[in-house]
Specification:
This protein is mostly helical and 480 residues long. It has helices spanning 2-48, 51-59, 61-65, 70-80, 87-94, 105-121, 131-147, 151-167, 174-191, 198-210, 214-230, 234-243, 252-268, 272-285, 292-308, 315-319, 328-339, 342-358, 362-366, 368-383, 389-395, 401-413, 441-463, 470-479, and strands spanning 386-388, 419-422, 427-430. Helix 17 (328-339) runs antiparallel to helix 18 (342-358) and helix 21 (389-395) crosses helix 22 (401-413). It is elongated. Residues 1-7 and 102-124 have low confidence and may be disordered.
Length: 480
Amino acid sequence: MKVEDKKPESSQKDLKETKEVKETKDADTLTFDDIRENVKSIEKGIQQKENRYLIRVMRTIFSIRKRLNDPILKKILNNYYTSQNAQADKEFLLSFIDTQSSVAPMDTDEATTKPEQAPPQSTSKPKSLLPEVDLYIHLLVLVFAIDRQKNKQAIDLAEKIVEKIMSQNRRTLDIIAARCYFFYTRIYEIVGKLDQIRFFLHSRLRTSVLRNDYEGTAVLINCLLRSYLHYNLYDQALKLVSKVTFPLHASNNEWARYLFYYGRIKAIQLEYTEAHKNLIQALRKAPQHEAVGFKQTVQKFAIVVELLLGEIPDKAIFRNPQLKKALQPYFQLTQAVRAGNLAQFNEVLEKFGEKFMKENTWTLIIRLRHNVIKTGVKIISLSYSKISLENIANKLHLDSAVDAEFIVAKAIRDGVIEAHIDHEGGFVQTKDLTDVYSTLDPMKVFNQRIKFCLELRNQSVKAMRFPPKKYSEELETAEV
C-alpha cells in the first residue's frame, strides 16, 4: 500500500512540471508571434505608406517589454538576421543575450523543428532586412538591456541605433526613431550623463522640425525639457517652450508629458493658475488604467499648486487606491494647511522633508508657509470679532506680537480678511462681513468655469481619432 500511495504523488509532481513547461512555452511562442505580427505590420505600413500601422506597433512595445527574455530574442535574431550583410549586427545583438539561458528543452525542440521548416521558404536568396524592421529589433534589445541593468552595453547599443537613424533618410523611420530617442535619453539619465546629449537632442530637433516629423519633434522637446528640469534649469526650459511650438498631432502620451513639464515650469514662475490648468490636463491626457507612477507624480504637483492657490484638494483624490499610499504625506500637508496650524505644518516638513526633496516638490512646499499663516488668520477673524495681537501670536505659534501685527497687516492688504488694527490698544477689530453675491466675484468664478469647460471640450475634439482616407471614400461613393 505504501508503494501504491507514493506513485500517484510522483505522477502529480510530473504533471505539474509538464504544465509549467507548457505554460512557459505558450507564453514565449505568443510573444514571438506578436513580434512577428508587428514586423508584418511594419512592412505593410511601408508598402501602403500608412503611419498608423507603425504607430500601432509602437504602442505594443511596453506590453511586449514585460514578456521579453533571452530565448525569444535569440529566436528573433536567428529568424530575421539571415543574410551575410547582417551577421555583424546579429553578433553584436547576441552579446546582450545570455546564451546559457537559451539552452532550455523548449528552445532546443523549437531549434530542431525550425530547420526542417526552413528549406521550403529559403529556396530563394534570403531577403535583406528593412531598415525599419532592423531598427525595431534593435529597439527591443535596447529595452531588454535597460531592464536587465546592462547600462554600459546599453549606451553602446543606443549610440549604434542613433548612427543607424542618422545614416538613413527615410520618412518611414520617423515613428520608430522617435521611440528610440526616448530610450536613448532614458539610458543616459540612468547613468547620470543626461547633460552630455543635450547638443545632440537640439540638432535632431532642428532636423525633425524641418522634416515635419511631428512625433519626433514632440519626443525631442519632452526629452530636452526633462533634461533641463532634471538639473533645475527652469529659465532655459522656459526659453525652449517659448521658442518651440509643440505639434498638435502628437500622441496623447507626449502631450501629457509636455503639459506636466510646462505645469512645473509655470509653478516655479509663480503662475499657479496656469500651472494647475496644465497639470489637470496632463492627468486627463494620461492613460486611464496604466502609467500609475506618472499619474502619482502629476497629482503630487497638482495638490501642492492647488494649495498655493488657496484651495483645498478634494478628499476623493486621497482615497483613490492607486494614489492613496503615495499621497499620504501630501494628505497630512493638506490637513495642516486647511487647519492653519503652523506647528503641524513644520512637523510634516521635518518628517517628510527628504521625500519632498526627492520628488522635487520641496521648493513649492516651502512657499506654503505663508498660506498656512493666512488660513490661520482667516479662521481667527471668523471666530473673533476682537482679539489681541498677543493671542494671535500664541495661536499661530509666532515669536512675538510684532510678527503677528505684520502678518495681519499683510492679510488685510491682500484682501484675505476685512479688519482694522488698533496699534495703540494692540488688538484687531474685524469688520462685518459683506454679501459676496453683491460683488463681482461670483461672475468671475462662473466665467472661469465656463472657460475651463470650453477648453476641455476643444481638447477632447482634438484628441479624437478618425480613420484615415474615410472622408475621401465617402466622396467617391457619393459621386458614383
